[in-house]
Amino acid sequence: MSSSAPYLSDEIGTSDIELEPNRKGFGRGLKAAGVAHKNVVALCADLTESTQMHMFRDEFPDRFIEVGIAEQNLVTLSSGMAAMGKIPFCASYAAFNPGRCWEQIRTTVCLSNQPVKIIGAHAGVSVGPDGATHQMLEDIALMRVLPNMVVIAPCDSQEAEKATVAMSEDSRPNYMRLAREKTAVFTTENTPFEIGKAQVFHEGSDVTIVATGTMTYQAMVAAQSLNKDGISAEVIHCATIKPLDEATILKSARKTGRVITVEEAQIAGGLGGAVAEILSEHHPVPLKRIGIKDHFGESGSPDELLRAFGLTHTHIAMTAHTITKKV
Amino acid sequence: MVKKRSYTIAQLNKIAQDIRKDILTALEHAGSGHSAGPLGMADVFTALYFDILKHDPKKPDWSERDLFVLSNGHIAPVLYTALAHAGYFDKKELLTLRKFGSRLQGHPERTKLPGLETTSGPLGSGLSQAAGMAYALRMDGETHRWVYCAMGDGELNEGNIWEAVMFAGKYKLNNLIGIIDRNNIQIDGATEDVMPLEDLKGKWESFGWHVLEVDGNNIESVIDAASMARAITNQPTVIIAHTVPGKGVDFMEYDYRWHGYGSSPGDYKKALARLRTLDGIIRSEHE
Q1: Is the pLDDT score of B265 beyond 80?
Q2: How many CA atoms are closer than 13 Å to the CA of A33, on its beta-carbon side?
Q3: Distance (Å, rounded) from C-alpha A319 to C-alpha A286?
Q4: Is residue B112 classed as helix, strand or coil in its secondary structure?
Q5: What ipTM is given for this predicted complex?
Q6: Which pTM does this prediction carry?
Q7: Is A71 marked active-site?
Q8: Per-residue pLDDT tens digits for A192-225
Q9: Domain boundaries, chain B
Q10: d(Cα B254, Cα A90) in Å, to the nearest integer?
């Protein structure tokens, strides 16, 4: 027996599913947050359209600040603005923000405990032809080790919109990673979102698949095909990687006895690392971690790269077959 | 605007000397910490906390206060001592400097001690935070408040500083006033040997800043420079404060080895004795 949550799209796994980059949801969410809260401001490092901050800029030109190509300044200016009561969202590509300004984030945002909202766009190998320099894979690990920091990877544009509004109302430092490519929009207005809460998107009993970011959709499609093969997979979407919803993950692991993690990032220090930590401490069970394994990306089309790195529903399903020994 | 002073220059000089003594005593108790920078900047901090800044030690979060950002956090001893003398906390607490459980961390932490606006230590990030504050004040129409940021000269090696210099120049943040501790030393030696900064004035001017140069060990000059800076309405101002590192202790003055030297408590005892001996003799090399 398996079932999908009723608040998700009926078109999961079909060619009718709507496609949109999740960064567009961020753009809409930021504008909505700007309407709701007049202390929300936006800072960008010369990537206003690709980070989708232009929606906010066009609505609130006086609350948008062009910083130029200077990510260290981007985040430290944001810290100063937060000190004055602003809620600053600062955006660039994840390779540069938080990639280049990690120490400034550590000292002036996390240690100083200012509610700066760091937006890393174009994360993952699905950035495509730009190659390894621009395919940020270490951001989850870099942000997850910082005290006070919250780490969020929304699964689609709908959730990114909700997450952005939630971030504007959260008093902690936040990091959100976004993808460049269009991906399936499979959550709906009715899908619950809460920072720090994982959602069981698909119930199952044979294996737990814990996924984050746009990989959750691949996990959902894998669960459908596994169902046909007689394997009941439970899919947990971990939009918040830190703080990790340990209770939801452990409850499922106790039920299924097997866990697979899926992320478009380094498994070392990433979601895979985080889940391995809590399982080994509280409930050791067989674990397979799907993600990037101590490797850089390279140029190619997004689909080619996702296949090459095993980040597809097919690969997730194969891994589930292996871990449940029902090949 | 003529600013009414509540202290005479003679009184301020006395306060600066008392701050120097308490810095050395605190460092002696701590058994480590930077000495040259804090001693060299005692006059600037006295000018700031006893004349220039609009602030209320009894209400550190006062919504009308000016903001002071210390970028080179390693000169924390002079900041803490100035805060204590101004009345933010009991001077006895200075003896907890750098000790376990103290609010006076080795480098300043905003969340630990009321009166600190930022957390600093890793160099090069203070001016950006100060610029963010200045920008926010302007957005909110709070034109009667000022943001001051003290930086070390060696710290100007950091690229983050120049990103902030470029930013403040572009947005003409006239409510932002930088103060550079131009003492010509950093850990590995003289600034001009480690990584030359000159033409320092020309560099800042070319980025759109108004530049003032003063004797940073002359309190009246520092106060006057801050008044002039506040009168500039169309660009940010930086005050290059020429200071004597280790000021007041003859065997420390001008010697870069004292930048971070602080392992021997005996050295501080000796320094304190010299400071007392020289009391009232040394005023300013630039007079």
Answers
A1: no
A2: 31
A3: 12
A4: coil
A5: 0.95
A6: 0.95
A7: yes
A8: 999 999 999 999 999 999 999 999 999 999 999 9
A9: 9-278
A10: 42
At B26 the three-state DSSP class reads helix
Encode A93-141 in three state secondary structure: ECCCCCCCCHHHHHHHHHHCCCCCEEEEECECHHHCCCCHHHCECCHHH
CATH 3.40.50.970 fits B9-278, yes or no: yes
Distance CA B172, CA A246 (A): 49
Chain B positions touching A83 (Cβ under 8 A) are 67, 110, 117-118, 129, 132-133
CA of A219: how far to CAs of A151, A189, B89, in Å?
Answer: 20, 21, 57
Structural domains in chain A, sorted by start: 3-8+190-324 (3.40.50.920), 19-184 (3.40.50.970)
| Cβ contacts from A onto B, under 8 A | 100
Q: In this complex, is the C-beta atom of A45 within 8 Å of any C-beta atom belonging to chain B?
A: no
3-state secondary structure of A271: helix
**What gap in Å lies between CA B269 and CA B277, rounded to an integer?**
12
Nearest Cβ partner for B133 among A72, A83, A104: A83
CB B170 within 8 A of CB B176: no
* CA gap B163, B167 in Å, rounded: 6
Q: Do A72 and B163 touch (CB under 8 A)?
A: yes
User: To which residue do tokens 């030297």 refer?
Assistant: B261
SS3 B47: helix
- Identify which of B109, B101, B97, B106 has the alpha carbon closest to the alpha carbon of residue B25: B97
CA distances from A313 to A9, A193, B135, B197 (A): 17, 24, 48, 57
Looking at the partner chain, which of A81, A85, A111 has a beta carbon nearest the beta carbon of B135? A81
CB hemisphere CA count around A194 (13 angstroms): 7
